Structure prediction request, 728 residues.
Amino acid sequence: MERDENAAKNPDGAAGDRAPLLSVRDLATYFRVEGGVAKAVDGISFDVMPGEVLGIVGESGSGKSVASLSILRLIPDPPGHIARGEIRYGGRDLLKLSYQEMRSIRGNEIAMIFQEPMTALNPVFTIGFQLIETLRQHHPQMSKQEAFERAVLRLEQVKIPDAAKRMRDHPHQFSGGMRQRVMIAMALCCNPQLLIADEPTTALDVTTQAQIMELMLTLRARREGGSIILITHDLAVVAETCRRVIVMYGGKIQEVGTVDQIFSSPRHPYTIGLLESLPSAQRGKDRLHTIPGNVPYIMDLPTGCKFCTRCEKVIDRCHQEEPELHQLKNGQLVRCHLVEDEAVKVSGDMPSTTTSAPAP
Amino acid sequence: MASYFARRLLLMIPTFIGVTVIVFGITRLVPGGPVEKELMAIQSALAGGEGGAGTTMVGTELITDKLRKQLEQSFYLDKPFYEAYLLWLGDVVRLDLGESFATKEPVWTRIKERFPISLTFGLTGFILSYLICIPLGIAKALRHAGVFDLATSIVVFVGYSIPGWAIGLLLLVFLAGDKYWDVFPLGGTHSDTFASLPGLAQLIEDPDVVVDANGELVREKMSLAARFLDRTYYMILPIFCYMMGSFATLTILTKNSLLDNLSQDYVRTAFAKGLAPMRVIFLHTLRNSLIPLATGLGHALSVLMAGSLLIEQIFNIPGIGLLGYNALVGFDFTVVMGVLAINTVLLMFGNVFSDMLYALIDPRIRFE
Prediction:
């Protein structure tokens, strides 16, 4: 059996032979906790193509945030550490960079937006200070005046009225949505290649959520090749913004596919469960479907399939043997014993993406 | 904000009245008093001088009656409580604290002459404890739960649990007496000749000038450095005792505050921006961690009246603590009230000053 490369249609319309901007291989991030090691992220692989908006979804505790923090090596150590893996970016393995080299990438080439705009900004400094600080960190030759103007420009781009005046304001003088705009302005101020947005709209009002998402997308569209990794548990946001989605559970990738594939023909029981938990107008007034049980505590993950304790289609084999990631004919990747008959196993070190990424 | 602080300043008036009324009342209620004390002294002097004959009793009565009237007038003791209090308050408003019963000097003079000592000990202790506790707290936070953290915690908390005067006694026994190590002086604020410190003689600029005809050192002619060192030498033990108490609080407050802030989201943001760890810790985090500490700074005003009765007693330092205590046991009520009034005012201004600092350092705080 051979893997059908052509079946993997590039969902972003980007040329299939383009090298990925970022490729993560077998990344594992562990935390030393009382009573052992918590495998928060346990061997995930994926690529981010230039210009792509990649969604990573999963419940709280699925490892999606830890995965994103690992890319920038922001995992607090101790107790956490990146146990193994490779994060290729611009021909280099981020995990092998010196601390100084890593710092020159943070906020400059790869920037991050966090979930809590209320606490993610330093309360005692003006937002002008915090924006200019980022700019001057990565452009030491930039004059104060220049940095100020650039910061104002970024604030205007995220549609903060009276931007020049508001530079002197402190974070508490902004609303939640406005603060998230400031965060976006700060993340984008050095023109990063990759923006990692970790639940950027979770803490905001629904109306504000849409504005923030739109803002992120339009700002990305203005630049050639700028990519976004959008981490969220909100499937609606994913459906609107992403082309490709990774579904995580128990620190592992469970399913990967285009938004169409994931929403119209989900194959992993967990993905199916997630989608059925969405309220929909057609379904009427029935009780909303829920996935039974809770995400198991990271130390109590089952030995077989990570989802076997909550799966409705569980078979005996699931409890003993963890399924490998398999690729379906349409390019979708699924980690489930039930699809193995119709799919091809993806070997451990192969990219778990729908595009093949030649190792640089 | 201005109106808030105006209100705070106005509120000081009733607070001041409240505090002083209570103590003024107590001075009226306690048995005995300055007049009785004075009369007793005179009576015993008279009785001792004349052998206690019957006729002298009448004479004594006459003298004491006249004296009593005279004495009573000086603290309005002949007036009813409320009237006396109002009269005293009126004097205080005119910045007149009255006259000491014991020495007949103005109370203000007696307090003023203690200021240099309070200021030296208070300010040195204050500055030293901030200088030591903040870096120590930072070091402890960065090595949280490590050997250094645990070891310093033990030292700090043992120090906190033992009262300053008890440590003072121990230090004197071990380091100042001739029983164990005779390293430090037993007490006082400076040596007579300002040349007690071993090696200090070298600092004396010209031996011919500073030694008088009898070969004694003349302190006025000592170099400034020599005088400073001499005073420092005498201050080491008492300052240590003064600081013991505040040490634990300040250190642990700094440590916890910094630890708390290091786990905040904005720290992660700062690291994600690519900032250096030193900048993240010492600029972003420390600025936030120092907010609770800044509130204590307002009380720096009180260093003018700093003093501890027991430590001053042990180290024989003529400070405010001793003055207040001696005034109290000697029924020298004008001095008691004077010390109290100044202390109260300084403390009240210290509180308001603290709040102002709080608003200054933390932009989120706005008083309405």
The first helix of chain A runs from residue 64 to 71. The radius of gyration of chain A is 21 Å. Residues 1-16, 349-360 of chain A have pLDDT under 50 and may be disordered. The longest strand of chain A covers residues 36-48.
